[in-house]
Amino acid sequence: MMVKVTHPSLYDLPSDQRMNLVNRLLSPNLFVVTQNGCHELQKCVGKGNYGRFELAKVGRTYLAHRVSYEFFKGRIPNGLIVMHYCDNPKCINPNNLSVGTIFDNNQDKAKKGRGNAPLGCKHGRSKLTESQVLEIKRLLREKSFSYGEIGKMYKVAKGTIQRIAEGRTWSHVQ
């Protein structure tokens, strides 16, 4: 299933605004070349360490890696995102950029071990210990208490117990 992805495109801008973005992209001292070949932005870096160009005239923000991709490689197909081979969100080197789906990007992250939250009690917001989860799983197997009753015993929500029962959380604890 393709997820709808909407980002402003370089190609949808009037030519004067398009040239404004391209001139910014090519401006001296905007980036440095790192040892691994990244063209790492030194300016215009915002949320998530992604480069951003604001165009006040049109009231839009353009992600620098998307501008780079479109300038050097062409229009980004609908429904696709621009991914970094180098895993560096500040990089605008077109040789380090490719297009893919959100699923492709998530697969790439998982394969490279990035973006994974800590499991179980190592997670900062965990309210349960592994020994408590083992006990909860035993109670669930016995079917003598409801999710809500078990939740009250351990001072967690009924939904927490349900997710444990369904294997959506704490599946690493047997």
Short description:
InterPro entries: His-Me_finger_sf (IPR044925), HNH_nuc (IPR003615). It contains six helices and six strands, in the order αββββαββαααα.
Keywords:
174 residues; alpha+beta; Arc Repressor Mutant, subunit A; 2 domains; two-stranded antiparallel ribbon; 6 helices; elongated; HNH nuclease domain-containing protein; HNH_nuc; plasmid
Describe the protein's architecture and organization:
- With 174 residues, this protein is an alpha+beta fold.
- The protein has two domains: 10-112, Homing Intron 3 (I-Ppo) Encoded Endonuclease, Chain A (Alpha-Beta Complex); 120-165, Arc Repressor Mutant, subunit A (Orthogonal Bundle), CATH 1.10.10.
- It has six helices and six strands, in the order H-E-E-E-E-H-E-E-H-H-H-H.
- The protein has helices spanning 15-25, 64-73, 102-112, 130-142, 147-154, 158-165, and strands spanning 31-33, 39-41, 52-55, 60-63, 81-84, 97-100.
- A two-stranded antiparallel sheet has the order 1-2. It has a two-stranded antiparallel sheet with strand order 3-4.
- A hairpin with a 5-residue loop joins strand 1 and strand 2 (39-41).
- Helix 5 crosses helix 6 (158-165).
- The two termini are 33 Å apart.
Architecture blueprint of SSEs:
Layout lengths: L14 H11 L5 E3 L5 E3 L10 E4 L4 E4 H10 L7 E4 L12 E4 L1 H11 L17 H13 L4 H8 L3 H8 L9
Antiparallel strand pairs: 1-2, 3-4, 5-6
Helix pairs in contact: 5-6
